[in-house]
């Protein structure tokens, strides 16, 4: 069980060793702002944990905590860099060719004509099933028809889709 650090003991530890710790971290990291952040994080760890009065070798203890924070920071940055490299390696979305675009438009027009050829009820059943994802029972309830009728209309519509896809 950790005990709270008396404020005066932590204050003394901070005053006596903060400058040294920040310099030590700056030499390790080569960056003044990262060193300042990790020095603060080191003292926060002590504040949250161990009784500062019980620390026998303060610089060794501070260096151990700060060293583990440096390792954590490098590990986190390594993971971030790997993630960014993975994102950068993903292929760019490709633009569709004019031929593909024409095929897509023709297919959409054929589907539109097919939907027009359905009766109003078959079209409604098909659209509710495909675009709203409703169950047969929900479609029947919404349209005021039986589940058996929903199945018949959907079978008719899907058969037409199959015929269209084979053409």
What does this structure look like?
The termini are far apart. The chain has 167 residues and is mostly helical. Helix content is 79%, strand content 0%. Helix 4 (98-117) runs antiparallel to helix 7 and helix 5 crosses helix 7 (147-166). It has 2 domains: 7-89, no CATH class; 98-161, Arc Repressor Mutant, subunit A, CATH 1.10.10.10.
Helix coverage percent: over 70%
Cα Rg = 34 Å
Q: What's the structural domain tally?
A: 2
How many beta-strand elements? 0
GO molecular function, one term: DNA binding
Domain RNA polymerase sigma factor 70 region 4 type: 109-161
Pfam family, one: Sigma70_r4_2
InterPro entries: RNA_pol_sigma-70-like (IPR039425), RNA_pol_sigma-70_dom (IPR014284), RNA_pol_sigma70_r2 (IPR007627), RNA_pol_sigma70_r4_t2 (IPR013249), RNA_pol_sigma_r2 (IPR013325), RNA_pol_sigma_r3/r4-like (IPR013324), WH-like_DNA-bd_sf (IPR036388)
Summarize the structure.
The chain is mainly alpha-helical. The chain is built from 7 helices and no strands. The protein is 79% helix and 0% strand.
Give me some keywords for this one.
about 170 residues; mainly alpha; Arc Repressor Mutant, subunit A; 2 domains; elongated
Layout: helices, strands, pairs:
Elements: H1 7-29, H2 32-48, H3 58-89, H4 98-117, H5 120-131, H6 136-143, H7 147-166
Helix pairs in contact: 1-2, 1-3, 2-3, 4-7, 5-6, 5-7, 6-7
């Amino acid at each position: 069980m950790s005990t709270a650090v008396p404020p005066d003991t932590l204050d003394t530890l901070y005053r006596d060793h903060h400058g040294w710790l920040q310099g030590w971290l700056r030499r390790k990291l080569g960056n003044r702002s990262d060193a300042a952040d990790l020095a603060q994080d080191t003292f926060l760890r002590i504040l949250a944990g161990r009784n500062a009065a019980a620390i026998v070798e303060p610089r060794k203890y501070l260096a151990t905590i700060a060293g583990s924070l440096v390792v954590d920071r490098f590990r986190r940055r390594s993971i971030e860099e790997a993630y960014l490299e993975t994102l950068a390696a993903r292929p760019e979305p490709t633009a569709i060719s004019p031929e593909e675009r024409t095929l897509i438009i023709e297919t959409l027009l054929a589907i539109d004509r097919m939907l027009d050829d359905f009766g109003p009820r078959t079209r409604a059943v098909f659209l509710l099933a495909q675009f709203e994802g409703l169950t047969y029972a929900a479609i029947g309830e919404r349209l005021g028809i039986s589940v058996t009728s929903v199945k018949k209309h959907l079978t008719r519509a899907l058969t037409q889709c199959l015929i269209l896809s084979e053409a």
